[in-house]
Each structure stands twice: as structure tokens, then as C-alpha cells.
């Protein structure tokens, strides 16, 4: 490292130190250290940087999904193809939007955790991954206007800081429709919204909506003697045809928009 060599030369040449006034030497060293510390690559060795994000490996993601997420063959296929295709596209036309549906315990949160960990080493703890829980962060309908303003500012500010920001919204079926409307402008085919591009951002919506309908489809396959793995995404089309955000008749599956 250049800094190491520079300090090494100073230690090996004491006569050079005596020839320079202490204050002058201190200022010189401070200038050298400041220039190195401000250098982005060195800074990113000690702190998380958006530019230093882990490159997505399709093989690693598939291995994680296969080893950790069970009984969700459709979800695994959609997540794998959607995420790898989106990340590998240098100029996506819109943000990646994933909507995961199912009963509590079906693996929605776990799937979003796997996604975050395969993009950022810090996973859900990364500065660039943001989790919102409807009943925790937006509990009072009377504060809807305040929530909308705060949420839009939060999304705008974080995408400005890191284009590849990830936003996870849990309990979407309990979120007020007006608050959902505040998110929609960020999800469309806009090059910029108020001067900010959201095309590389990732939005993941988790919901219990549709669970009964998806369960019904799975039961129909079981009653007819067919394997669960024979269920195709098209078999869920009717169950997932209504809005992912506010329909009460949807269940346990994945919808992807890209």
C-alpha cells in the first residue's frame, strides 16, 4: 500500500525528520493521511459503500433458495429469473417490483432476506436495504398525509444516495390504500421523478392477501392426485389477477413486474 511505504520511508530515514520542523511535518502527514482517507476505495474498506455492493451470482442465489426455501418452487423460479435478469441489465426501464403472497410462515420474509443477502453483505442490516412494516411504521390512519410525505422523502433520499436501494414493505394487506398510492409513482416507466431515477431500485411487497385462493389451487392439485411441483405460474393467474395490494381474495404466491 502506498501509505504503508510512505510511513516506512519516514521511519527508516530519521535524519530527514530532523531536517523538518515538527509542526511542518505534522501538517504534511495530516495532508497525506487526509488524501488517503478521503479516497473512496480506502473508505469503502472500512464502511459499506453502494459502489462496493456484492455482484449477484445466479449460482449462489439458486443455491441459497434451494437450501433455505422449501415448498415454494414457483417463488424460487420467479425470484431467481427476475432478480438475475434485472441486476444484469445495465439500463432497466423501470424498478424491479416483486409481490410475495401467502399465509404467515410460508417464507415471504425469509425470501426477502435471501434476496437482500445476495445483493448486500449486510443483508437486511445493510444501509441500502429498508424494511417497512405497515402496522409498525404506519399505524394510524389519521396520520396518512404525514406518512405519505415522509415515505416519499425517505424513498427519494435513499435512492439519491444509492440507486440500487432495496425497499421491503411487509403486511401490504394492512396498509392504507392512500399510502400505497404514494409509492406507485416510483414504480413506473419514468426516467426521472423530480430529478431522481428509480429504475435500478428494487421494491418487494409482502402480503397475506390471496392466501386462501392459492391454497385452493394447491388443494385441487392434491385432490386430483397431482404433485405440488406440477403447479405452474399460469395455474395461479386467476388468484393473482386482482391488485396485489388491496385484494382480499389472494394467497401464497409470487408476482413479478419488471
Structural class: alpha/beta
Which band does the percent of strand residues land in? Answer: 5-15%
Order of helices and strands: HHHHHHEHEHHEHEHE
**Mean pLDDT, rounded to whole units?**
78
Low-confidence stretches: 1-30, 32-38, 242-254
Our measurement of the CA-to-CA distance between the termini, rounded to an integer number of angstroms, reads 43 Å
According to DSSP, the number of beta strands is 5
Largest beta-sheet details:
5 strands, mixed
Tally of separate helices: 11
Instruction: Indicate the radius of gyration in whole angstroms.
Output: 24 Å
Percent of residues in helical segments?
Answer: 40-55%
Multimerization state: single chain
Q: Overview of this structure, please?
A:
The protein has 258 residues and is an alpha/beta fold. Helix content is 46%, strand content 10%. Mean pLDDT is 78; it is low at 1-30, 32-38 and 242-254. The protein is built from eleven helices and five strands, in the order H-H-H-H-H-H-E-H-E-H-H-E-H-E-H-E. The chain has helices at 2-12, 14-18, 22-37, 40-46, 58-68, 73-87, 108-119, 134-137, 144-161, 177-183, 211-223, and strands at residues 96-101, 129-133, 166-170, 202-207, 254-257. Helix 5 (58-68) runs antiparallel to helix 7 and helix 9 (144-161) packs parallel to helix 10. It is globular. The chain has a five-stranded mixed beta sheet.
